[in-house]
User: What shape does this take?
Amino acid sequence: MTIARWTNFIPQPLRFTFVGGCAAVIHFMTVFFLVETFSLAPLLSNVFAFLIAFSVSFSGQRFFTFAHSSVSLKSSFIKFFTIALIAFLLNEVLFFLLLSLFQMNYQLALVIVLLIVAIGTYFSSKHWAFSK
Assistant: This one.
């Protein structure tokens, strides 16, 4: 049974949540590791975490969440990267605001930001990156 046939049994929002959750955990743990181990600033650590989590997110969304997509790999990559980049810019601005204006703990701020940005990413992915 191919992955595309297997995914018929799991609703798409659940697949997206699973993949996005994995990417978010990797993102969060990367930030945590870089801040706590190397004393990098949270905002800088967030950039590195985005780049690592993006590869997990794209692979999972393309081949698991949207496995039935007929959009070419190249086209979906470009569109998904565009969405992810815009989402990351929003992520970084919100993260900065929560850290600087609200003096929030970087871990709590990052969780809040990742959850907010995930919602927009799902709808953008579903209706643009992986659809014709």
